[in-house]
Design a protein that fits this description.
A five-stranded antiparallel beta sheet has the order 4-3-7-6-5. The longest helix has 22 residues. The protein has seven helices and seven strands; from the N terminus they run E-E-E-E-H-H-H-E-E-E-H-H-H-H. The chain is 40% helix and 20% strand. Helix 4 packs across helix 5. Strand 5 and strand 6 form a beta hairpin. The chain is globular. The chain has one domain: 2-Layer Sandwich (Beta-Lactamase), CATH 3.30.450. Bound molecules: flavin mononucleotide (FMN). InterPro entries: PAS, PAS-like_dom_sf, PAS_fold_3. This is PAS/PAC sensor protein. It holds the Pfam family PAS_3. It comes from Flavobacterium saliperosum S13.
């Protein structure tokens, strides 16, 4: 829980009011056609979570409200991914990240994010809205887990600055941003699936088109 003690300086103390679940290596069983949604204030404090969020995370709504969003942070997630996510959100930019989340049961669930950002009349960020969809297991196993494991190892050994440098180098080598990389691996999977099903693959015209097709 966060307590505002000074409105000007916005100093917040974070208190753990719940026991962090012990992670177990089992996936949450959920309807992967659904969209997990939440709304936060500009600090990432949860103000709303939809039924799907509640079902998948295993928390009751009264346990989630007013909690920092890291209530579902999984220890397998490298810090650098959240750093880059927040760097973009604070600039008012949408971001598509693949995230492993921790349910109350200790089980995990992988999602890809999509954000809407609301601002007041002065242009200050007031709220963030996050929508999340499931990610195909093959994308996780083939591309995401190996990269995140490496980032986490680097972080544990040498800190987040080192893991950020590694991530930058990894993406520079492919001449891509993180979001381009995510789009490519998701698209590659979609094409493979479509080929398997002998279906027609619609040409992906741009990044915005790709993600809006995915989230609609
Ligand atoms: C709207 C919104 C949605 C978020 N969704 C998630 C999420 O699904 N999982 C997660 O671990 N962090 C999510 N975050 C990021 C968390 O605020 C937090 O940065 C992250 O869990 C890492 O925790 P830490 O910053 O305490 O290291 C979200 C943030 C915002 C603003």
């Amino acid at each position: 829980m966060y307590f505002a003690i000074d409105n000007e300086l916005k100093i917040y103390f974070k208190m753990e009011v719940f026991e962090r679940p012990v992670p177990i290596d089992k996936e949450v069983s959920w309807d992967k056609t659904k969209t997990i949604m939440s709304k936060t204030d500009r600090f990432g404090t949860i103000e709303y979570a939809n039924e799907v969020f509640i079902d998948v995370s295993g928390y009751e709504d009264y346990e989630l409200m007013s909690q920092p969003h890291n209530i579902i942070r999984h220890p397998d997630m490298p810090k650098v991914i959240f750093k880059v996510l927040w760097d973009n959100l604070k600039k008012g930019e949408n971001y598509h990240a693949i995230v492993k989340n921790l349910a109350k049961s200790g089980r995990y669930y992988w999602v890809i994010t999509d954000f809407d950002i609301s601002k007041d009349e002065k242009g200050n960020i007031v709220n963030y809205f996050a929508r999340r969809k499931a990610v195909p297991q093959e994308v996780i196993t083939k591309h995401i887990e190996p990269l995140y494991k490496r980032l986490l190892q680097i972080e544990n050994a040498s800190g987040m600055e080192a893991s950020e440098k590694y991530l930058v180098g990894y993406l520079e080598e492919q001449n891509k941003t993180y979001v381009d990389f995510i789009m490519e691996i998701m698209n590659e999977h979609e094409k493979a699936m479509a080929q398997q099903n002998a279906a027609n693959v619609t040409k992906v015209e741009d990044k915005k088109g790709f993600f809006s097709k995915f989230f609609n």
